């Protein structure tokens, strides 16, 4: 579903991604971890073309992100992305937040969009909040709305960038629970997170990055019980 082949990226002179190669199969859940500044956010943003790369090839759902011929806006509508900060539209109700892109980008009717939105709000346990504004919800609830909003577009892949790291601790699990459910339903997911409980539960593979390089790309069993590199060992010792 996702393929990165020798992807390199520079910010000016600074090489932020170094020859990154990996694949994510349909229905796979891949957790990306590594120290702060190692390039995790940049890597995940290259997948849907939010960050252009200077070298290498990226393919998602059979479309080449790195080709000039590919319409990035069309491609992005099929790739759900959830960030650390929820980025809901503050001036729109929860329901409007969920219907807007369905109507504008996918051309769904108001009724179709509304039906889809309500069913996804129900799925994340927030149906009762449809007519509220984002600021009236807790951080955990807003992040669940952000996930529901992404799912409204029927994405072929979901990308998450530290979706729980801005949340108060008591709200982390309600968001992870939604993500775990999504994983069990077979969604293809690439998740930057330090929540190793989540990784242990649902990851098929773990990618460990350091200084712009993919240092390990391995099964979660292997990663947690027998990491190959000293850098991964150090990292695990610090966070577990
Ligand atoms: P992570 O998500 O692993 O913390 P990032 O991908 O955000 O890492 O950043 C990787 C490196 O790239 C960091 O050293 C960061 O300072 C640098 N960086 C990120 N965005 C930019 C940018 N727009 N311009 C220059 N350097 C950047
Ligand atoms: Mg980051």
Automatic annotation (TrEMBL):
It is found in: Cell inner membrane. This is Glutamate/aspartate transport system ATP-binding protein. Keywords: Amino-acid transport, ATP-binding, Cell membrane, Membrane, Nucleotide-binding, Transport. It comes from Gilliamella bombicola. Belongs to the ABC transporter superfamily. The keyword Cell membrane applies. GO terms for molecular function: ABC-type amino acid transporter activity; ATP binding; ATP hydrolysis activity. The keyword Cell membrane applies. It is a peripheral membrane protein. Its main location: membrane.
